[in-house]
């Protein structure tokens, strides 16, 4: 147990510190006023929720079907008014109609304007203030490409001619070599002389020392030898 220093009336007093007893459960002081809960427990049913969702879904489907049904109904456009009202103007005053026609005729009468162009000076175009354009020699890319292509074709032609010349020289050397080999073989064949057949001493065969008969079995000879 430890001591705790406390100052009481200007004097330092040592008091023992209480040790917490882990074996004895402590009861916390409850608040006198109950705390207000943020949430409130209410009954909840999954079956009821499913029924409400299904009801909303059916209403939505029904509304969509009604809209599609209204859209399929044919609504004809009204007939355009092509015929004019012939009765309009029949009961108007004849004098007002005559005056109106006269005014229209006067307005439609052609009146020529004075020819001012005849007294004016003729039109003279003004020279341009800018300097005259000097044409520049154009160097087309097609010309340079055609020149390069012509040089390349000439190079290919010379290369093919050189290769053909080398092949002709190689064929000539091969033919000359074969010709020399044929002449050498012919010369060797003409200078060949066969050796004469050697003469050997005639051997006189003597009389046979092995009896010719009687023909006995070899098995008997082998047994007798053993």
TrEMBL record:
Keywords: Cytoplasm, Cytoskeleton. It comes from the Eukaryota. Transmembrane segments: none annotated. Coiled coil: none annotated. GO terms for biological process: regulation of mitotic spindle organization. GO terms for cellular component: microtubule; spindle. InterPro entries: TPX2_C, TPX2_fam. Residues 170-226 are annotated as: Disordered. Residues 170-193, 216-226 have a biased composition (Basic and acidic residues). It is found in: Cytoplasm, Cytoskeleton. Residues 139-207 form the TPX2 C-terminal domain. It holds the Pfam family TPX2. Belongs to the TPX2 family. This is TPX2 C-terminal domain-containing protein. It comes from Timema shepardi.
